[in-house]
Amino acid sequence: MDVDGVLTDGRILLVPDGRGGAHEVKMFDVQDGVAVTFVHRVGLRTGIITGRASESVAARAKELSMEIVEQGTWNKLETYEKVRAAVKLDDTQIAFIGDDLQDLPILRRAGFAVGVANARPEVKEVCHLVTERSGGRGAVREALEFILRAQGKWEKILERYRA
């Protein structure tokens, strides 16, 4: 999945560091993170391919035990191909969530393309699913829950909470 506009709402907060620079701060939706842990529980893998490099993203990906973390890549399709080959999956086995034009090449290749509610119209046109929720506001949760339900794995998740 992409990060800015998907795992976040796309806004970036720059906090002055007192030395003429700034620290980048991003906000992530807790329910999105919970959904990432759900898919891990049933054996699915997760990762990010993002154009910007950010310590906040690296920390969040580590916190969520995301297997693939590719930051600072502007040729997302090339990175996708490299990752796909490394994890030995074909396109039909991969879902990708995006929001902007630079995500289009991957969305066209992935077996299941998801656009967030606030994605560019061109992105929505190529997607199998467009979420009702916006990026950074539960769109990832919605998409991952959709996948879990479609694969018949949602009940396994619910079992843990039915006590």
Q: Could you please say which CATH topology applies here? A: Rossmann fold
Cα end-to-end separation: 33 Å
Overall structural class, as computed from helix and strand content, comes to alpha/beta
Uncertain runs: none
Secondary-structure element pattern, one letter each: EEHEHEHEHEHEHH
Total DSSP helices: 7
Main beta sheet: 3 strands, parallel
Q: What is the CATH architecture annotation?
A: 3-Layer(aba) Sandwich
Helix percentage:
25-40%
User: How many structural domains can be distinguished in the coordinates?
Assistant: 1
Strand content: 5-15%
Any idea what the CATH superfamily is called?
A: HAD superfamily/HAD-like
DSSP summary, beta strand count: 7
CATH class: Alpha Beta
**Gyration radius over CA:** 16 Å
| Shape descriptor | globular
| Overall pLDDT metric | 97
Please characterize this protein's 3D structure.
This protein has helices at residues 30-41, 55-63, 76-87, 104-109, 121-126, 139-150, 154-159, and strands at 13-16, 22-25, 47-49, 68-70, 95-98, 112-115, 129-130. The chain is of the alpha/beta class and 163 residues long. The protein has one domain (13-159): Rossmann fold. The strands form 3 sheets. A 3-stranded parallel beta sheet has the order 5-6-7. The chain has a two-stranded antiparallel ribbon with strand order 1-2. A two-stranded parallel ribbon has the order 3-4. Strand 5 (95-98), helix 4 (104-109) and strand 6 form a beta-alpha-beta unit. Helix 1 runs parallel beside helix 6 (139-150). The radius of gyration is 16 Å and the shape is globular.
